[in-house]
Sequence to fold (284 residues):
Amino acid sequence: MNEKPLTSLSGYVLLLVAIVCLFSSTAVAWANLNVFVAALLFLTAIVLFIGITVINPNEAVVCTFFGDYVGTMKQNGLRWVNPLYSKKKISLRARNLNGQTIKVNDKMGNPIEIAAVVVWQVSDTAKALFDVDNYQTFVQIQSEAAVRFLTSSHAYDNMEDEHETVTLRDNTGQINKFLEQELDERLSQAGVRVMEARISHLAYAPEIAGAMLQRQQATAVVSARKQIVEGAVGMVEMALARLAEKDVVQLDEERKAAMVSNLLVVLCGEKSVSPVVNAGTLYN
Fold:
């Protein structure tokens, strides 16, 4: 069911007419002029009062006539419609849904804790009221389902799969975009528009947090040592090349190996190396 506009009359004029009818009926009854006219004026005033409704900014009134959807009024102010219409107000303001932290397994099967914040508003009042049972509960449940689906479709990080291009931790912008698209598809049937969706909490579950922290530290150490070794090898190559170019000293293979070993120890060692003067020879 799609929303359709409902034309309404200005309530200020009809409110004035209702007040006039009410006072007129009182005056006629007080003067004992005509009981029928007094009753007719009184009933007219009551009907006019019933048809008047107040619509606040960013608010709509959905009208039905004996179970049949008539339309939605969105004009602000004092409005008047058929008094036989059943009227239900619905807010069009933006709302925040602060999702609870849930535990879900990511694509690699690791349990993680995740939560999301969703900013949404009603865009189609007819769908919100008539296509779902309770649109607010529907938004809450579908938001949690979308977060679970997103988590199970992506890895927390790419430690286990180097080819994983989009991860929950490293690609926050893309993940938030995917979440918005998933929520739009799920909530469109309830007449709800998602204005913004973002991950508000992301962490490993407590039972594996310690192990994953050690793994991340080990990965960082290995990466750092790899950079150090690559730099040290480059410096050794440069030192040997410069010695050969300047013809400072002639080194055979054994002396080159000893020099490379010493340079790598100095360059790759975690602590400062104490120099030792070798007064002997490498050869017996």
Remarks:
- Helices lie at 11-31, 35-51, 125-130, 135-153, 172-187, 206-246, 253-268.
- The chain is about 50% helix and 20% strand.
